[in-house]
Amino acid sequence: MAELVHIAVDRGVAAITLDSPHNRNALSQQLRGELRHHLTTAIDDDRVRVIVLDHTGPVFCAGMDLKEAGGTASGDQGVNEFPEILDLIRTSPKPVVAKLAGPARAGGVGIVAAADIAVAADTATFAFTEVRIGVVPAVISVTVLPRLAPRAAHELFLTGETFDATRAVAIGLINSAVPADRLDAEVVRYTDMLSKGGPVALAATKALLREPVSDFGSMLKLSAEFFASEEGQEGIAAFAQKRNPSWIP
Description:
Layout: E1 5-10, E2 13-18, H1 29-44, E3 50-55, H2 66-69, H3 74-77, H4 82-91, E4 96-100, E5 104-105, H5 107-114, E6 117-121, E7 125-127, H6 138-144, H7 150-159, E8 163-164, H8 165-170, E9 176-178, H9 183-195, H10 199-210, H11 216-228, H12 230-240
Parallel strand pairs: 2-3, 3-4, 4-6, 5-7, 6-9
Antiparallel strand pairs: 1-2, 7-8
Family: Belongs to the enoyl-CoA hydratase/isomerase family.
Protein name: Methylglutaconyl-CoA hydratase
Organism: Actinocrispum wychmicini
């Protein structure tokens, strides 16, 4: 059986590529299993500093594979593992960048929202198509709703309307929409910036972004811990000595 998801590591960046163009990179059981496996591999690999979610073919991800879903209960579909995938992306201690050269639909948009940074070609489109087939965008709401402006969330979840990359930027779903011939360069721009951050500091900052607090006391403690940490002291010394810190090759 041919692999549907590939992983390659180059200079600290793990590219995880959805490669099932025959069904528009739909989230089939095989693809879900391989994606979960490669995400875990990248997270556990000390060489990896940043993860990029990429795709082959004209579509980033069409959502759940409806051919597998027909006539089955949710447990039988295996969709219970999809929240695990979204959570792996969302809670990964390493920054995750989604790269879209084409459309995302339903569960595919959930993956985009789970990533820390999302960059799309300006020709890419998006839609929450669930209500149009009589189902609810329940699982992806966990990653999508914190991103979207509330009015836009109501409109787009309820209507299922297709919207373009420019609007996706405006409502907070993605970070950047660029011409297709600039997509690779835009992703590299982000991965280069992310690679400059201290690995432990990046992981802690991701945790802070997931669960922001308003307690100055705990934040002062966290700040002091990182100023005194080995990574923090190395970063301060590198700044003073006008050199790269040790985590930058």
